[in-house]
Amino acid sequence: MAEGLSPTASFGPSPRGPSLTDIKKLVLDVLKPHNPSIVEMSRRLAALHGVLGVNCTVDEVDQETESLKITLEGNSIDYEKVEAMVREMGGVIHSVDSVSSGKKLVEAQKTPQDL
Fold first, then answer.
1. Taking the CB of residue 51, how many other CB atoms lie within 10 A of it?
2. How far, CA to CA in Å, does 53 sit from each of 12, 82, 110, 113?
3. Averaged over 57-73, what is the pLDDT?
4. Is 76 a residue whose pLDDT tops 80?
5. Vertex 108, ends 31 and 42: CA angle to 5°?
6. Using the 8-state DSSP alphabet, how is residue 115 labeled?
7. Which conformational region is residue 29 in: left (phi greater than 0), alpha (psi within -120 to 50 degrees), or beta?
8. Distance (Å, whole) CA 20 – CA 56
9. CB-CB contact of 35 with 26 (8 Å)
10. pTM (predicted TM-score)
11. Annotation: CATH topology of 23-102
């Protein structure tokens, strides 16, 4: 065990408020059937505790499914609850493309390799 950590150390949301490791922003690649609509999916994800806003963008549509980019922002996003809600609506998370956590939201910066 790491020095200074107790065996009962918790890194998730605290009942006393957000912890230093709470997820502030989550970007997901999701595959879902045509129904429910992205409007309904956005509303249901936005209603989750700790989520302040949701953006759903359709990347691709085929005969039976839609690929979405879903961005969630909040003060304490619970990934497991987001994943359960996506599954409940018939979707599957293909990948987690970006995660921001901590005391404040930090945006990605361009580096020389990005140019």
1. 21
2. 20, 13, 25, 31
3. 96
4. yes
5. 35
6. -
7. beta
8. 27
9. no
10. 0.77
11. Alpha-Beta Plaits (3.30.70)
Look up residue 112 and give its two tokens: 């020389």
The whole-angstrom separation of Cα 72 and Cα 51 is: 7
Sign of the torsion formed by the C-alpha atoms of 80, 86, 88 and 90: negative
Crossing angle (nearest 10°) for helices 79-88 and 38-46: 150
Chain centroid, CA 42 distance in Å = 12
Per-residue pLDDT tens digits for 1-42: 444 444 444 444 445 454 546 899 999 999 999 999 999 999
CB count within 10 Å of CB 110 equals 7
User: Of how many residues is the chain composed?
Assistant: 115
Yes or no: say if 101 and 24 are a contact pair by the CB < 8 Å rule. Answer: yes
Residue 109, both tokens: 């910066």
Joined tokens for residue 41 = 């999916």
Place of tokens 């994943």: 83
Phi, psi angle pair for 8, to nearest 5°: -105, 15
